[in-house]
Design a protein that fits this description.
- By secondary structure, the chain is an alpha/beta fold.
- The protein has two domains: 1-157, NADP-dependent oxidoreductase domain (TIM Barrel), CATH 3.20.20.100; 161-176 and 187-278, TIM Barrel.
- It has helices at 11-24, 35-38, 40-50, 85-99, 118-130, 144-151, 169-172, 175-182, 205-218, 222-231, 246-254, 262-273; strands at residues 28-30, 59-64, 66-67, 80-81, 104-109, 134-140, 159-162, 187-189, 238-239.
- A seven-stranded parallel beta sheet has the order 1-2-5-6-7-8-9, with helices on one face.
- Helix 1 (11-24) crosses helix 3.
- It comes from Pseudoduganella umbonata.
- Residues 2-268 form the NADP-dependent oxidoreductase domain.
Protein backbone atom coordinates (compact mmCIF):
# COMPACT_ATOMS: atom_id res chain seq x y z
CA UNK A 1 0.00 0.00 0.00
CA UNK A 2 3.02 2.33 0.17
CA UNK A 3 2.04 4.21 -3.00
CA UNK A 4 -1.65 4.55 -2.19
CA UNK A 5 -1.34 8.30 -1.70
CA UNK A 6 -0.02 8.62 -5.26
CA UNK A 7 -3.03 6.82 -6.74
CA UNK A 8 -5.28 9.86 -6.15
CA UNK A 9 -8.27 7.67 -5.31
CA UNK A 10 -11.38 8.74 -3.43
CA UNK A 11 -12.27 6.73 -0.29
CA UNK A 12 -14.92 4.92 -2.36
CA UNK A 13 -12.35 4.02 -5.03
CA UNK A 14 -9.95 2.75 -2.37
CA UNK A 15 -12.73 0.61 -0.92
CA UNK A 16 -13.56 -0.76 -4.38
CA UNK A 17 -9.92 -1.77 -4.88
CA UNK A 18 -9.88 -3.61 -1.55
CA UNK A 19 -13.09 -5.43 -2.46
CA UNK A 20 -11.74 -6.40 -5.89
CA UNK A 21 -8.59 -7.76 -4.24
CA UNK A 22 -10.66 -9.85 -1.85
CA UNK A 23 -12.62 -11.28 -4.80
CA UNK A 24 -9.29 -12.38 -6.32
CA UNK A 25 -8.27 -14.05 -3.05
CA UNK A 26 -5.80 -11.30 -2.13
CA UNK A 27 -6.62 -10.46 1.48
CA UNK A 28 -3.35 -9.23 3.04
CA UNK A 29 -2.60 -5.51 2.87
CA UNK A 30 0.94 -4.38 3.63
CA UNK A 31 1.50 -1.04 5.36
CA UNK A 32 4.15 0.83 7.33
CA UNK A 33 3.73 3.79 9.63
CA UNK A 34 5.99 5.91 7.38
CA UNK A 35 4.30 5.14 4.05
CA UNK A 36 3.04 8.22 2.25
CA UNK A 37 4.85 10.50 4.69
CA UNK A 38 2.89 8.92 7.56
CA UNK A 39 -0.37 9.21 5.61
CA UNK A 40 -1.21 5.93 3.85
CA UNK A 41 -2.59 4.07 6.86
CA UNK A 42 -5.11 6.85 7.37
CA UNK A 43 -6.16 6.70 3.70
CA UNK A 44 -6.75 2.96 4.04
CA UNK A 45 -8.59 3.47 7.33
CA UNK A 46 -10.96 5.93 5.65
CA UNK A 47 -11.86 3.30 3.06
CA UNK A 48 -12.26 0.56 5.66
CA UNK A 49 -14.59 2.79 7.68
CA UNK A 50 -17.02 2.77 4.74
CA UNK A 51 -17.45 -0.99 5.21
CA UNK A 52 -16.15 -2.03 8.65
CA UNK A 53 -17.30 -5.65 8.22
CA UNK A 54 -14.47 -6.14 5.69
CA UNK A 55 -12.00 -6.15 8.59
CA UNK A 56 -12.95 -9.75 9.34
CA UNK A 57 -11.97 -10.79 5.78
CA UNK A 58 -8.55 -9.15 5.54
CA UNK A 59 -5.15 -9.21 7.21
CA UNK A 60 -3.51 -5.90 8.08
CA UNK A 61 0.28 -5.77 8.19
CA UNK A 62 2.28 -2.78 9.36
CA UNK A 63 5.88 -1.93 10.14
CA UNK A 64 7.67 0.39 12.53
CA UNK A 65 11.18 1.34 13.55
CA UNK A 66 12.08 4.05 11.01
CA UNK A 67 11.73 7.70 11.99
CA UNK A 68 11.54 10.21 9.14
CA UNK A 69 11.99 13.96 9.27
CA UNK A 70 8.46 15.04 8.38
CA UNK A 71 5.92 17.77 9.08
CA UNK A 72 3.75 14.92 10.32
CA UNK A 73 6.34 14.22 13.04
CA UNK A 74 7.76 17.64 14.07
CA UNK A 75 9.76 16.12 16.94
CA UNK A 76 11.96 14.17 14.47
CA UNK A 77 15.16 16.07 13.66
CA UNK A 78 17.12 13.32 11.85
CA UNK A 79 16.25 10.18 9.91
CA UNK A 80 17.03 7.36 12.30
CA UNK A 81 15.92 3.97 13.54
CA UNK A 82 14.14 3.41 16.84
CA UNK A 83 13.25 -0.08 18.04
CA UNK A 84 12.82 0.87 21.69
CA UNK A 85 9.81 -0.44 23.57
CA UNK A 86 8.34 3.05 23.81
CA UNK A 87 8.60 3.72 20.08
CA UNK A 88 7.27 0.33 18.99
CA UNK A 89 4.28 0.64 21.33
CA UNK A 90 3.51 4.21 20.27
CA UNK A 91 3.82 3.28 16.58
CA UNK A 92 1.35 0.43 16.99
CA UNK A 93 -1.13 2.70 18.74
CA UNK A 94 -0.80 5.26 15.95
CA UNK A 95 -1.27 2.59 13.28
CA UNK A 96 -4.36 1.16 14.98
CA UNK A 97 -5.90 4.62 15.18
CA UNK A 98 -5.08 5.47 11.55
CA UNK A 99 -6.29 2.12 10.20
CA UNK A 100 -9.40 2.30 12.41
CA UNK A 101 -8.91 -1.20 13.74
CA UNK A 102 -8.45 -2.80 17.15
CA UNK A 103 -5.55 -5.05 16.15
CA UNK A 104 -2.87 -5.75 13.56
CA UNK A 105 -2.56 -9.24 12.13
CA UNK A 106 1.20 -8.79 11.67
CA UNK A 107 3.76 -6.26 12.88
CA UNK A 108 7.25 -6.06 11.37
CA UNK A 109 10.38 -4.26 12.48
CA UNK A 110 11.03 -2.29 9.29
CA UNK A 111 14.85 -2.37 9.24
CA UNK A 112 17.63 -3.62 11.50
CA UNK A 113 18.59 -1.02 14.06
CA UNK A 114 22.23 -0.96 15.27
CA UNK A 115 20.87 -0.10 18.73
CA UNK A 116 18.18 -2.79 18.77
CA UNK A 117 17.99 -4.93 21.89
CA UNK A 118 16.59 -8.35 20.98
CA UNK A 119 15.34 -8.99 24.51
CA UNK A 120 13.57 -5.63 24.68
CA UNK A 121 11.91 -6.14 21.29
CA UNK A 122 10.74 -9.66 22.21
CA UNK A 123 9.34 -8.45 25.53
CA UNK A 124 7.53 -5.59 23.78
CA UNK A 125 6.06 -7.99 21.23
CA UNK A 126 4.81 -10.24 24.04
CA UNK A 127 3.14 -7.26 25.73
CA UNK A 128 1.45 -6.19 22.49
CA UNK A 129 0.15 -9.73 21.96
CA UNK A 130 -1.13 -9.94 25.54
CA UNK A 131 -2.94 -6.62 25.06
CA UNK A 132 -4.64 -7.99 21.94
CA UNK A 133 -3.09 -5.29 19.74
CA UNK A 134 -0.97 -7.56 17.49
CA UNK A 135 -1.47 -11.23 16.59
CA UNK A 136 1.82 -12.11 14.86
CA UNK A 137 5.31 -10.66 14.53
CA UNK A 138 8.10 -10.54 11.99
CA UNK A 139 10.89 -8.39 10.60
CA UNK A 140 11.96 -6.79 7.33
CA UNK A 141 15.39 -6.51 5.70
CA UNK A 142 17.07 -8.56 8.46
CA UNK A 143 20.08 -10.78 7.85
CA UNK A 144 19.81 -14.48 8.64
CA UNK A 145 21.69 -14.04 11.91
CA UNK A 146 19.60 -11.04 12.99
CA UNK A 147 16.40 -12.93 12.20
CA UNK A 148 17.47 -15.99 14.16
CA UNK A 149 18.58 -13.92 17.17
CA UNK A 150 15.07 -12.48 17.56
CA UNK A 151 13.30 -15.68 16.47
CA UNK A 152 14.96 -17.56 19.36
CA UNK A 153 13.29 -15.13 21.77
CA UNK A 154 9.83 -14.95 20.16
CA UNK A 155 8.47 -16.84 17.14
CA UNK A 156 8.59 -14.74 13.96
CA UNK A 157 6.41 -15.52 10.95
CA UNK A 158 8.34 -13.76 8.16
CA UNK A 159 11.31 -11.69 7.04
CA UNK A 160 10.22 -9.26 4.32
CA UNK A 161 13.16 -8.68 1.97
CA UNK A 162 13.89 -7.28 -1.47
CA UNK A 163 14.11 -9.92 -4.19
CA UNK A 164 13.65 -9.99 -7.95
CA UNK A 165 15.55 -11.24 -11.01
CA UNK A 166 17.52 -7.99 -10.69
CA UNK A 167 18.24 -8.45 -6.98
CA UNK A 168 19.03 -12.08 -6.15
CA UNK A 169 21.19 -11.53 -3.06
CA UNK A 170 18.86 -13.39 -0.62
CA UNK A 171 19.48 -16.61 -2.59
CA UNK A 172 23.20 -16.39 -1.85
CA UNK A 173 23.57 -14.72 1.57
CA UNK A 174 21.73 -17.49 3.51
CA UNK A 175 18.55 -15.42 3.95
CA UNK A 176 16.34 -17.85 2.02
CA UNK A 177 18.26 -20.95 3.16
CA UNK A 178 17.84 -19.99 6.80
CA UNK A 179 14.13 -19.29 6.43
CA UNK A 180 13.55 -22.54 4.56
CA UNK A 181 15.35 -24.41 7.34
CA UNK A 182 12.96 -22.83 9.90
CA UNK A 183 9.95 -23.33 7.59
CA UNK A 184 9.29 -19.58 7.64
CA UNK A 185 8.10 -18.03 4.37
CA UNK A 186 9.75 -14.75 3.35
CA UNK A 187 7.68 -11.85 2.06
CA UNK A 188 9.14 -10.17 -1.01
CA UNK A 189 9.17 -6.46 -1.70
CA UNK A 190 9.94 -5.02 -5.15
CA UNK A 191 9.48 -8.37 -6.98
CA UNK A 192 9.30 -6.52 -10.31
CA UNK A 193 12.40 -4.45 -9.45
CA UNK A 194 10.40 -1.28 -9.00
CA UNK A 195 9.15 -1.52 -12.58
CA UNK A 196 12.67 -1.70 -14.07
CA UNK A 197 11.78 -5.02 -15.72
CA UNK A 198 9.27 -3.20 -17.91
CA UNK A 199 11.54 -0.34 -18.99
CA UNK A 200 13.53 -0.20 -22.22
CA UNK A 201 17.03 -0.42 -20.80
CA UNK A 202 20.06 -1.99 -22.53
CA UNK A 203 21.26 -3.30 -19.15
CA UNK A 204 18.16 -5.48 -18.76
CA UNK A 205 17.45 -6.25 -22.43
CA UNK A 206 18.63 -9.88 -22.31
CA UNK A 207 16.63 -10.58 -19.17
CA UNK A 208 13.47 -8.92 -20.49
CA UNK A 209 13.84 -10.83 -23.76
CA UNK A 210 14.17 -14.17 -21.94
CA UNK A 211 11.17 -13.52 -19.70
CA UNK A 212 9.17 -12.35 -22.71
CA UNK A 213 10.00 -15.51 -24.68
CA UNK A 214 9.00 -17.75 -21.75
CA UNK A 215 5.80 -15.72 -21.36
CA UNK A 216 5.01 -16.47 -25.02
CA UNK A 217 5.91 -20.15 -24.60
CA UNK A 218 3.58 -20.51 -21.62
CA UNK A 219 0.86 -18.17 -22.86
CA UNK A 220 1.13 -16.14 -19.67
CA UNK A 221 1.63 -12.41 -19.05
CA UNK A 222 5.19 -11.14 -18.54
CA UNK A 223 4.56 -10.12 -14.92
CA UNK A 224 2.98 -13.47 -14.08
CA UNK A 225 6.13 -15.28 -15.21
CA UNK A 226 8.27 -13.14 -12.91
CA UNK A 227 6.02 -13.80 -9.91
CA UNK A 228 5.97 -17.53 -10.72
CA UNK A 229 9.78 -17.57 -10.92
CA UNK A 230 9.97 -16.09 -7.44
CA UNK A 231 7.31 -18.33 -5.89
CA UNK A 232 8.99 -21.47 -7.23
CA UNK A 233 11.77 -21.11 -4.67
CA UNK A 234 11.53 -23.77 -1.94
CA UNK A 235 11.37 -21.18 0.84
CA UNK A 236 7.88 -20.43 -0.58
CA UNK A 237 8.21 -16.64 -0.90
CA UNK A 238 5.09 -14.48 -0.76
CA UNK A 239 5.54 -11.52 -3.15
CA UNK A 240 3.91 -8.16 -2.61
CA UNK A 241 2.31 -6.24 -5.44
CA UNK A 242 2.76 -2.49 -5.31
CA UNK A 243 0.13 -1.52 -7.84
CA UNK A 244 -3.24 0.18 -7.61
CA UNK A 245 -4.23 -1.33 -10.98
CA UNK A 246 -6.40 -4.39 -10.57
CA UNK A 247 -5.04 -5.79 -13.86
CA UNK A 248 -1.54 -5.92 -12.38
CA UNK A 249 -2.85 -7.63 -9.26
CA UNK A 250 -4.69 -10.16 -11.44
CA UNK A 251 -1.40 -10.97 -13.18
CA UNK A 252 0.25 -11.61 -9.83
CA UNK A 253 -2.58 -13.95 -8.83
CA UNK A 254 -2.29 -15.85 -12.12
CA UNK A 255 1.26 -16.72 -11.16
CA UNK A 256 -0.02 -19.01 -8.40
CA UNK A 257 -1.22 -21.38 -11.15
CA UNK A 258 2.02 -21.38 -13.16
CA UNK A 259 4.85 -23.90 -12.84
CA UNK A 260 7.94 -23.15 -14.89
CA UNK A 261 10.13 -26.00 -16.07
CA UNK A 262 13.49 -26.26 -14.34
CA UNK A 263 15.18 -25.20 -17.59
CA UNK A 264 12.93 -22.15 -17.93
CA UNK A 265 13.67 -21.18 -14.33
CA UNK A 266 17.42 -21.39 -14.90
CA UNK A 267 17.18 -19.55 -18.22
CA UNK A 268 15.78 -16.56 -16.31
CA UNK A 269 18.53 -16.87 -13.68
CA UNK A 270 21.20 -17.02 -16.39
CA UNK A 271 19.82 -13.93 -18.11
CA UNK A 272 19.54 -12.13 -14.78
CA UNK A 273 23.14 -12.85 -13.78
CA UNK A 274 24.67 -12.59 -17.23
CA UNK A 275 26.35 -16.00 -16.99
CA UNK A 276 25.54 -19.65 -16.44
CA UNK A 277 25.78 -21.24 -13.01
CA UNK A 278 29.33 -22.41 -12.17
Amino acid sequence: MWRMGEWKMSPQERLALVEQCIELGVTSFDHADIYGNYGVEELFGEALALRPALRERIQLISKCGIQLVSPARPAHTIKQYDTSAAHITASVDNSLKALRTDFLDLLLIHRPDPLMDFDEIAETFEQLRAAGKVKHFGVSNFSRHQFECLHRRIPLVTNQVEFSPLHTTPMYDETFDGLQDLRVAPMIWSPLAGGRLFRDDPATEALRSTIGRIANETGQPFGSVVFAWIMQLPSRPIPLTGSGRIQAIEEAVRATQIRLSRSQWFEILRAAQGHEVP
